[in-house]
UniProtKB/TrEMBL annotation, chains A, B:
Enzyme class: lyase
Classification via PANTHER family: RIBULOSE BISPHOSPHATE CARBOXYLASE (PTHR42704), RIBULOSE BISPHOSPHATE CARBOXYLASE LARGE CHAIN (PTHR42704:SF17)
Keyword Metal-binding (UniProt): yes
E.C. numbers: 4.1.1.39
Family listed: Belongs to the RuBisCO large chain family.
Pfam families from the UniProt entry: RuBisCO_large, RuBisCO_large_N
Provenance organism: Gloeothece verrucosa (strain PCC 7822) (Cyanothece sp. (strain PCC 7822))
Domain Ribulose bisphosphate carboxylase large subunit ferrodoxin-like N-terminal positions: 5-95
GO biological process, alphabetically ordered: carbon fixation; L-methionine salvage from methylthioadenosine
Name used for this protein in its record: Ribulose-bisphosphate carboxylase
Keyword Lyase listed: yes
Coiled coil feature spans: none
Protein origin, superkingdom: Bacteria
Amino acid sequence: MTITVDYRFPPGIDPQKQAKIIAVGQTAGTWDAKWSHREDTLKQHLAEVIDIQTDERGYSIAKIAFPEMNVENDIASLLTMIFGKYSMAGAAKVLGVHLPESYGQRPKFGITGIRKTLNVWNRPLIMAIFKPALGLSAADHGIILKQVAQAGLDIIKDDEILGDLATAPTLKRLEACRQVIEEIQQQTGRTVLYAVNVTGKADQLIQKARLLVKQGANALLLNVLTYGFSVLEALAADPEINVPIFAHPAFAGAMCASADTGLSYSVILGTLMAHAGVDAVLYPAHYGSLPFEAQEEHNIRDNLRSRNVFPVPSAGIHPGIVPKAIADYGNEVILNAGTGIMDHPDNPGAGVQAFFEALERLESGQPFTVDSLPPGALKQALEKWGV
Amino acid sequence: MTITVDYRFPPGIDPQKQAKIIAVGQTAGTWDAKWSHREDTLKQHLAEVIDIQTDERGYSIAKIAFPEMNVENDIASLLTMIFGKYSMAGAAKVLGVHLPESYGQRPKFGITGIRKTLNVWNRPLIMAIFKPALGLSAADHGIILKQVAQAGLDIIKDDEILGDLATAPTLKRLEACRQVIEEIQQQTGRTVLYAVNVTGKADQLIQKARLLVKQGANALLLNVLTYGFSVLEALAADPEINVPIFAHPAFAGAMCASADTGLSYSVILGTLMAHAGVDAVLYPAHYGSLPFEAQEEHNIRDNLRSRNVFPVPSAGIHPGIVPKAIADYGNEVILNAGTGIMDHPDNPGAGVQAFFEALERLESGQPFTVDSLPPGALKQALEKWGV
C-alpha cells in the first residue's frame, strides 16, 4: 500500500527537482556502491513521483507516493516522513494526504457513538463553551452548566486555554459539573456531555485522562496540535478512555495559515485527525470570527465525515448563523458557541433556547428575520449578533 | 511573574487592535455584569499590551505580557495560550518568547553533562548519522558504527525518518550497536553515544524509551515537533531516562518557514526547546544544504547555550565547513554530518578522520585549501565537497 501526498510549489521553484528531492531525501536517501548488495531493500523504501502538473499561474502540484512500510501506522511518523526535514527546504505546501483506509485508527464513538450516548438523532447537536475562559471557580462552572443544561444543551466544553489551574482545578471542575449532569439525568433522562480539557506532560496527561474518566468524566477535550498527535493517538487507543475525545484546533494556524509553506487546514484538521482516532474536531466556520476559506471548511467536513468523525464548526457561532450552518451541513454537525451562548442578553440558558428556536423555525420553514420573530430568546440574539 | 511575547504584524494590520484581541482573547476573554463579583480574579488573568513599535516599512511589533499563572510551567499550555486560537486569526508571527528563568525544565545533561559522559572537553564534538536512512539491517548499523567509532567519532544518531521498522527494529539496532560501543569502551576507554530514535504513540513511546535505556541505550533522539513537546517534557522529567535526549527539528519549517505567520525558528528550536529539558538540539546551519538565515541560527545557538543545551548545526555539514563553524561557534558545538561522513570517497571512518584533521589544521593555524593539504582523508573530502 502507498501513501500519496500532494505538494504545491509556487512559481520559480523547479517542481521536478524538488519532487525528486522529496522522494529520495524523505525516504531511503542516496547510496553508493558499497551498499549495492542492499539495493533491493533500499529501493523498496524509496518514494515515487507519480505526477506533476503546472497551472497557468506557474503553481505546480507534485503527487508523490510513499511506501506505507516506511511509517508506523500513526500520524507522527507520517509527518516526519512527508514533511519533516523537507519542511525547512523552502516554499512548498502539503495540500493533500491520501491514506489507505486501514491507516491509523477510527473513532471509538464518532458521529454515531456520540448520538447514541446522547440519544439525539434528528437534529444538529448544540455545544457551548464555558466563558469567561479563565478566572471562574469550579463552582461557577457548575452554576453555568445548570443554566445551559436545563435549557436543553447537548455538550459543553472547557475553553481550550483553561488548564489545570489553581483558580479552578480540573478535578474540581469535573466534580462540580458531574453533580449537575447527574441531576439533569435523573430529572429528564437526558445526558449532557462535558468535554474536560486534559493537559500536562504526556505521561501525566494520559494518567489524568484515565483518572478523569474514573471520576465520571463523560468526554475529553485535547489541544492536539500543542500536545502532539502521539498523545491523541495514545488516548484514542486506550481502552480505559471509553468516552468521546474532542480535538481543539489551537495552533493550527501556525502550521496552516501560510499560502506557500506548511500544510493545508484540511490535511491537519481533516485527514490527519480523521485517521488519529478522535471523535469530533473543532475548526473555524468560514462565516465566523476567524478568516477561513469556505472550501477548506467543506474539505475538513467531508474528510471527517468519511470516517464517522463529528465536524464542529466554531468561532463566532451564534443563533443567527444557524440557517447558513444547516445549509452547509444538514443535521450531521455540532454547532459550538462560546460567547454566542454565554453572552446572550438574557442569560446563557436563553442563549441555548435561541439555538433551539432557530432550529425549529428553520424546520417549519418560517422566516428568519428579526422583524418576523416573536419576542423571545432568538429575537434577542438576532438583535445582538445579527443574522 | 510574566511571560512576554513579541508578535510581528505586517503592514495593513492594525497592531493596536490585534494586540488587544490577543491580550483579552487569549486569556480571560470578555465578561459582562453578571461576573462583576469575580472581576478581581478575572483581571488577574488578563494579559497586558506593554509596547507597540512600527518600523518604516509598516511592520509592527507588539509586546504582550501574560500572567505566568495562566499556564502550567510547560510548553504545550504556553503555546495554546500565546498562539492557540490566535494562530488562525490572520497574519501575525511570534518573533520572541521571554520566559522566567524558572519556567519549564533544565537539561539533565546538556553541554557539561554530555562532555562529562564523553570525557571530551576542549574541542567540538563530532556526530554522524546512519545513512542510507531506510533499508539497512540492524547488523549493517553495527558495521557502520564500528568503522566510525574506531575513527574517533563521539556521537551517532539514527536518521529521523527511521522508526521502529521491520527491516531494522529499534531494539535490534540498539543490540547491534551496543556491542560495538562496549568493544570500543573496552579497547580505548572512550564512550560513544548512540542516539536511538524513539517513536510510537505517546504512552508506548515513553515505555519504549524506558526499555531502551534499561537495555543499554546511552542517548535518545526525538522528533519533538511531530510527536509533541509534551512527550519531550515527559521524557526529560522521567528519572528512568537518565541519558541525554537529542531533539530533531523535523517539521519545524511547517511552523516557522513563513515570513508573516507561525513562529520564528529561534523560538521553536531555541527558546522553547531550551525550556523543555532537552540536552541537545539539531537545526540547519546557514551555510548548509537548507535555506536558513545566519541571524536565526545565531539566536538559536545563544538561546540554547543560555540554558546549557548543546547546539547541533546540521544539514549539509562536511569537513570543509569546519573553519566556518568554528568561527561561528568556537568549541561549544556538536558538528553533525550525515552524508558528509557516510559518503566520504574512502569510507565512513575516513569521513570522521577528515573532521579531526580539519580541527587539528585549524588549531595549528595551517592553511585550509585543497592544494595546501597532504594526501589523506581531509584532502579527499575537500575535493568532493569543497570548502
